Amino acid sequence: MGSRRRSSHVGLDLGGTNVKWSVVVREGAAWRVVDRGHRATPADEGVAAVVAALATVGTTAAQRFADISSVGIGVPGSYDPTAGTTRFLTNIPGDWDGKPVATLVGQALGVPAFLINDARAFGLAELRLGAGRGAASMVGVTLGTGVGGVIALDGRVYQGHDGTAGELGHQTIEPDGPDCTCGGKGCLEVFVRADAIEAASGAASVEQAVERARAGDGRAAAAISDAARYLGIGIANMVSVFTPDRVVIGGGVSAAFDLLVGPIRAELKHRVHLTSLDMVEIVPAELGVWAGATGAAIHGAESV
Asked: 146 and 268 in one domain?
């Protein structure tokens, strides 16, 4: 019976618009989401207000259950996993360098707290509960305002020594390409992120670009096909290095998975020659907007 010990864990997903939360129950090797919700992020009120909101949301979620054992916090940027402090967060104004987010939220809930990058949280959720279930190795990509990534080896998300492993969006695709927000040039992200697709398609949003492409608009179709080609190059690099069982594609842009997957597979066939592509599945993510909060909760559970 010891292997079926039950515990509950809170996960928080900090975004520029909303803080999403999830409560996950772990029972042996089984996971299930038992509650979830969200509230607006007070991003314009400063760092202290955002951290206070995280603590309030986490405490409110924890009070609904008697056996909360940990809290995981997914953050959109870099952090120090040992100190539990943030370094730099995207889309959330303020000086986040050195802020003890894990300590403050953990103290509010009275449980251990752990930070994780939001893309890695997405990947962990998909690995345990979503499209990555059963895969020993996985590459995950989130497509939206930026391009996030995750690598899983031997059934575990690999984070490296500082939580930054898996940044697929910042591999160099064109050495002398456009400047990237990370400080590099020609990163995958500059070709695939939402605003690049919008600019190339002439659409006001990615959703509109997808609608136009499906309706036969040549410019929109070409924009999405070009983005998919670059994404295929990036995924081909990962397949050559890691030979994953599965590639999971998520994020807002992944709503166009049916338009992306053909060019991606064509690039893999063109560029990957040292391993069998028959053993590599390319699938859409399953958990939607809740993956980050769910993965953060799982990260907390696995870190205790």
From this structure: yes
